[in-house]
Design a protein that fits this description.
Low-confidence stretches of chain A: 402-406
Enzyme class (chain A): oxidoreductase
Radius of gyration of chain B: 14 Å
CATH topology of chain B: Rieske Iron-sulfur Protein
Shape of chain B: globular
CATH class of the largest domain in chain A: Alpha Beta
Mean pLDDT of chain B: 89
Number of strands of chain A: 39
Oligomer: heterodimer
CATH architecture of the largest domain in chain A: 3-Layer(bba) Sandwich
Number of domains of chain B: 1
Strand order of the largest sheet of chain A: 3-2-1-7-19
Strand content of chain B: over 45%
InterPro entries (chain A): BFD-like_2Fe2S-bd_dom, BFD-like_2Fe2S-bd_dom_sf, FAD/NAD-bd_sf, FAD/NAD-binding_dom, FAD/NAD-linked_Rdtase_dimer_sf, NasD-like, NiRdtase/SiRdtase_haem-b_fer, Nit/Sulf_reduc_fer-like_dom_sf
Number of helices of chain B: 0
Family (chain A): Belongs to the nitrite and sulfite reductase 4Fe-4S domain family.
Low-confidence stretches of chain B: none
Strand content of chain A: 15-25%
Mean pLDDT of chain A: 90
Order of helices and strands of chain B: EEEEEEEEEEEE
Cofactor (chain A): siroheme; [2Fe-2S] cluster; FAD; [4Fe-4S] cluster
Number of strands of chain B: 12
Distance between the termini of chain B: 18 Å
Radius of gyration of chain A: 31 Å
Keywords (chain A): 2Fe-2S, 4Fe-4S, FAD, Flavoprotein, Heme, Iron, Iron-sulfur, Metal-binding, Nitrate assimilation, Oxidoreductase
CATH architecture of chain B: 3-layer Sandwich
CATH topology of the largest domain in chain A: FAD/NAD(P)-binding domain
Bound molecules: flavin-adenine dinucleotide
Number of helices of chain A: 25
CATH class of chain B: Mainly Beta
Helix content of chain B: under 10%
Structural class of chain A: alpha/beta
CATH superfamily of the largest domain in chain A: FAD/NAD(P)-binding domain
Largest sheet of chain A: 5 strands, parallel
CATH superfamily of chain B: Rieske [2Fe-2S] iron-sulphur domain
Largest sheet of chain B: 4 strands, antiparallel
Helix content of chain A: 25-40%
Chain lengths: 846, 116
């Protein structure tokens, strides 16, 4: 250690990156980082993911332990309130003082709230920190409508968050268009059209005059044009302003419209003070993205380590998904550069807009706008950043189906091309990593950190690595794991042709070692698809994931959830009562699932057989919620009751669910049947969906909900019952035969050469001549169905597995519940300590 | 006074209670011990703490056993970390380790050594 003291004000993304970089350079300085927020730095860029279920803790970039290990003194929740430049000391709100030799300001920015009367109402919020997020969630609880003021990048992200919170969402923008900074008029219009189609209401050219108490809702916004908008909450996202207050008070130079002025060394007007990130003003400009901030952090860290380094501005091109819409903006999106020419492509049916801006001679790319389809972004960005000469007809880069697109392969990139702008990794850096011994994508990522930031370059990186590896004669390994040099598809084929019926046979013939938690369940699933034996037959026992072993879904506390089959979502009152009684008797938490069934949580391992004995006695069967298998076939009520229904969707759903129940597959399979085109069963979000028509059924395939929703594609129309089932038989068996492990139908089809058309040829036209075989195979699976739970409760050997302890009765004493909203839920760790301690002390007192 | 903990071999169950290439859980001196039975290995039985330190639940006996890069391992059924059956060491995180219990077969009886 030397005795140079470095103090960093602000522990945001950039402040943290600076500390990390400086520690990595091993200068041995005494580093102190002081943050205003109560927690260590976190990933602000992905803040919105918390609204989709990500835990705030998962966003952490560092923990207190990280800093301890690095020997960095870290202070949280105590902002710096004064810089004493003469004494070279900073003072915090609580009065603590820290001396510095070099000071780094990384105070970021704050959301701008326009000076409108009423904007200080408690239901008017902003969106920048984890704490803001909590406030938005809390306000949303008793709101029906929400307004975002500001139609820029952050505003639209925020609108998405409100939508995810189930609010009727409005966006109010002062300017005439959305995302005016990044998009030209055409792009902005297309974006608006797409967003409105999602149900978000967009109000442009609106100047908010005042916010007052509302009559129909909590608030009312009065606009300059006399219009009024009622809403229950407002989030301001009308731009950011640099946090330069401290700098002003310390008489450092600041810009006219804010921002701490820095030079190309990131020095402020005091040569011992640096400023980096969103608080800094470089060349008259604030860089409101994380990558430029990271570059500034590196520039300062390198200088402190005695290396020359300069900040040279940064490219502000961006690619993102806003409300599920792909948007990209590169360079001079508005074609402001004199003499530039533009090529525009607009498809209002597919809702895609693309524009490229080139130099007058058409040779250099100056800018681009992409809305609705960002596939070309990576290629265009490389042309732009590296000044690569454009093809003779530049429009070919954006016009679809204009023959083969001149693809800019990874090989064509110069070594200096930036691949990952978050971590500033060039193609050269990646090639170097491969030269020094990395031989897989994972290793390259770990070594260079490429694609570990925003992830926007993932596809490009994968291509580059695979390209480089095959150029080196390395075959890219697609083996399922170290025990089998095969893909799942190959293993399936080997098992079928070789009639292999156990994992041991498979391992002996085609593998090595003992297997692992990847290949064992995969092979077990293949065996089940092919031979359909009970998953708990002796040779298959040790192969299954715990869910399959215990025929239930393991939850975070080690208990299980139980989901009986309710085919088509139809259930008699008597059966409903049984579910209630069983749940009550065993203290199970009860919740309705999205698949129209009832999930019973908190069942202990040793109670599962008792629970199922009662359920089976009442006529229930297992719902296979634990398996990679057919889950549910959802239905709407159909022509039986509904005024609009044209076919009996419930009847068809029950038939389909009963036909395919228990079918094991590479991944779970979901289905639905709608009784008319109103599509109340949401069949187009399923692996296969059926929608009634006047003349029969339309079949849709390869959709899914979940993390990456995808609409199913229309596969065949107006089918009669028999043909419908025949096509589904073939489709499912073909999927089971050829998909990769854990590959859902949508990804499977995307990877089939020829895609949907090819699938039609195979399933409808029987182009491979395998359809009768596929049907036979399905018939044999359907014919050998057994309810796994029914078989289990009648077999004493199988029941032995459900004991919690081999040598004692009873259950796990550390499974503890508390009550919430009238039901059990698992106790949190801190509650558990209290509860278990109380039980223990009560037992000790006996 | 010096308290010396005495370790003794305790019979916990019979071979027939074990499941080949899989795990069971036993209660030994108040502690939950996961016992894995790999009949084709020399040692045959392996015993680790049943508590998953990452998922914080008593579930290790319900994991899948196998080998990775030559080490015998069990995978946590919750978040899939792998633990060495002989040393308890977590393969993914050097800071995490499961307790290991001495275990042996005495004829058909499975015996574990634990605090008394
Ligand atoms: C919802 C959202 C989405 C975003 N999406 C993207 C994106 O997709 N791509 C992209 O590139 N960028 C995105 N950004 C912008 C990105 O987060 C910022 O560019 C980045 O966080 C800037 O880092 P910073 O360290 O300069 O500021 P911050 O991360 O804001 O950190 C500044 C820290 O300093 C603290 N501080 C301020 N004053 C003091 C003081 N006096 N004493 C102590 N501490 C103080 C603040 O509390 C704060 O914690 C997004 C931002 C938000 C809010």
């Amino acid at each position: 250690m030397n005795d140079r003291k470095i103090v960093v004000i602000g522990n945001g993304m950039v402040g943290h990156h600076f500390v990390e970089t400086l520690v990595g350079l091993g200068t041995g300085d005494h580093i102190t980082v002081i943050g205003e927020e109560p927690r260590p730095a976190y990933d602000r860029v992905h803040l919105s993911e918390v609204f989709c279920g990500r835990e705030p803790a998962e966003l952490a970039l560092a923990t207190r332990d990280t800093y301890r290990e690095w020997g960095v003194q870290a202070v949280f929740g105590d902002p710096v309130t004064r810089i004493e430049r003469a004494a070279k000391t900073v003072v915090t709100a609580s009065g603590r003082r820290f001396d510095y030799h070099k000071l780094v300001m990384a105070t970021g920015s704050y959301p701008f709230v326009p000076p409108v009367s009423g904007a200080d109402h408690e239901r008017c919020l902003v969106y920048r920190t984890i704490d803001d997020l909590g406030r938005i969630k809390a306000a949303a609880k008793d709101s029906r409508t929400g307004v975002v003021v500001g139609g820029g990048l952050l505003g639209l992200e925020c609108a998405n968050a409100l939508r995810n919170l189930d609010l009727e969402t409005h966006v109010v923008e002062f300017a005439p268009g959305l995302m005016g900074v990044q998009l030209d008029e055409g792009g902005s219009r297309m974006l608006r059209r797409k967003i409105e189609a999602l149900g978000v209401r967009v109000h442009t050219s609106k100047n908010t005059r005042e916010i007052v108490d509302g009559s129909g809702a909590a608030l009312a916004m009065n606009f300059a044009d006399e219009a009024v908008l009622d809403t229950d909450m407002i989030v301001f996202s009308a731009g950011i302003r640099p946090r330069d207050q401290l700098a002003r008070e310390s008489e450092l130079a600041v810009g006219e419209r804010g921002g701490i002025v820095i030079d190309y060394k990131c020095k402020t007007s005091d040569s011992d003070i640096f400023a980096i990130g969103e608080c800094a003003l470089f060349g008259g400009r604030i860089y409101g993205l994380v990558a430029p901030g990271y570059r500034m952090a590196e520039v300062v860290a390198n200088q402190l380590a005695g290396e020359p380094a300069q900040f040279q501005g940064a490219d502000m091109s961006t690619k993102l998904k806003l409300l599920g819409v792909d948007v990209g903006s590169i360079g001079d999106a508005h074609a402001r550069i004199e003499g530039s020419i533009s090529y525009v492509f607009s498809d209002e049916r597919a809702e895609v807009y693309k524009r490229i801006v080139t130099s007058g001679d058409g040779k250099t790319l100056l800018g681009a706008v992409l809305v609705g389809d960002c596939e070309d972004y990576d290629t265009l960005l490389q042309y732009f950043l590296n000044g690569i000469e454009l093809p003779a007809e530049p429009e070919s880069l954006i016009v679809p189906a204009a023959g083969d697109k001149p693809l800019l392969g990874a090989a064509a990139l110069p070594m200096s091309a930036t691949v990952c702008s978050c971590h500033n990794v060039t193609k050269g850096g990646i090639v170097e990593a491969l030269d020094s011994g990395c031989c897989s994508l994972g290793e390259v990522k770990a070594e260079t950190r490429a694609s570990t930031g925003c992830g926007g370059c993932a596809a490009m990186l994968k291509n580059l690595v695979e390209d480089e590896l095959s150029a080196r004669g390395v075959t890219v390994d697609k083996s399922i794991c170290e025990h089998f040099p095969h893909t799942r598809q190959e293993l399936y084929h080997l098992a079928r042709v070789g009639e292999l019926k156990t994992f041991d046979d498979m391992l002996a013939k085609h593998g090595r070692g003992r297997g692992c938690d990847i290949c064992k369940p995969a092979v077990a699933s293949i065996m089940a698809s092919l031979w359909n034996e009970h998953v708990l037959e002796m040779p298959h026992v040790g192969l299954q994931d715990t869910n399959d072993t215990f025929l239930a879904n393991m939850q975070k506390d080690g208990t299980y959830s139980v989901v009986p089959r309710i085919a088509g979502g139809e259930i008699t009152p008597d059966k409903l009562i049984v579910l209630g009684e069983v749940a009550k008797k065993y203290g199970l938490y009860t919740k309705i699932t999205g698949g129209q069934r009832i999930d019973l949580f908190g069942a202990r391992q040793h109670e599962l057989p008792d629970i199922w004995r009662e359920l089976v006695a009442a006529g229930f069967e297992t719902g296979h919620a634990y398996g990679k298998a057919l889950r549910t076939v959802k239905s709407c009520v159909g022509s039986t009751w509904c005024r609009y229904g044209v076919q009996d969707s419930v009847g068809m759903a029950i038939y389909i669910e009963n036909r395919y129940k228990g079918l094991r597959a590479p991944h779970k399979i979901k289905s639905a049947v709608s009784g008319c085109t109103r599509e109340c069963a949401e069949a187009q979000s399923k692996d296969f969906g059926v929608i009634a028509t006047e003349n029969g059924w339309n079949l849709y395939v390869c959709g899914n909900g979940g993390m990456k929703p995808r609409h199913a594609d229309l596969f065949a129309t107006d089918l009669d019952d028999e043909t419908l089932i025949r096509y589904i038989d073939r489709f499912l068996m073909f999927y089971i035969r050829t998909a990769d492990r854990l590959q859902r139908t949508s990804v499977w089809m995307d990877n089939l050469e020829g895609g949907l058309d090819y699938l039609r040829e195979v399933v409808i036209e029987d182009s491979l001549g395998i359809c009768s075989e596929l049907e036979q195979q399905m018939a044999s699976v359907v014919g050998t169905y057994q309810c796994e739970w029914n078989t289990t409760i009648n077999d004493p050997e199988k029941l032995k597995r459900f004991r919690q302890f081999v040598n004692a009765d009873g259950g796990d004493p550390e499974v503890v519940f508390v009550q919430e909203r009238g039901q059990n839920r698992p106790a949190r760790p801190e509650e558990k300590i209290r509860l278990v301690a109380r039980v223990a002390s009560a037992a000790g007192a006996k | 006074m010096n308290v010396v903990e005495k370790l003794v071999w305790q019979g916990v169950c019979l071979r027939a209670d074990l499941v080949a290439n899989s795990g069971v859980c036993a209660l030994v001196a108040g502690e939950q011990v996961a016992i894995f039975y790999l009949p084709e290995t020399e040692q045959q039985v392996f015993a680790l703490g049943n508590r998953d330190p990452v998922g914080r639940a008593n579930v290790m006996s319900r994991g899948i056993v196998g080998d990775l890069q030559g080490q015998l391992v069990v995978a946590s059924p919750l978040y899939k970390e792998h633990y060495n059956l002989l040393t308890g060491q977590c393969l993914e995180d050097a800071r995490v380790c499961l307790p290991v219990y001495p275990v042996r077969m005495d004829g058909d009886q499975v015996q574990v050594q634990a605090g008394n």
